[in-house]
Amino acid sequence: PEAELDRRRASWQRPEREVERGVLTKYVATVRSASDGAVTA
């Protein structure tokens, strides 16, 4: 139901990154989502 989705959206928080530096961080910062073709910028 829409009310449940609204409740979940209101309480959602972005997860913290597990990696703060290095190659994986560069990858996370530059890769696009799969719906965009998962290309790197």
Task: Fill in the keyword field for this structure.
mainly alpha; 2 helices; 41 residues; 44% helix
What does this molecule look like?
By secondary structure, the chain is mainly α. The chain has one domain. The chain contains 2 helices and no strands. The protein has helices at 2-11, 23-30. The chain is flat. The N and C termini lie far apart (36 Å). The mean pLDDT is 83. This is Dihydroxy-acid dehydratase.
The gist of it:
This is Dihydroxy-acid dehydratase. The protein is mainly alpha-helical.
Could you give the count of β-strands? 0
The proportion of residues forming helix, as a percent range, comes to: 40-55%
Provide the β-strand percentage band: under 5%
General form: flat
Our count of helices gives: 2
Count of domain modules: 1
Protein name: Dihydroxy-acid dehydratase
Which secondary structure elements does this structure contain, and how are they paired or packed?
Blueprint: H1 2-11, H2 23-30
Protein name: Dihydroxy-acid dehydratase
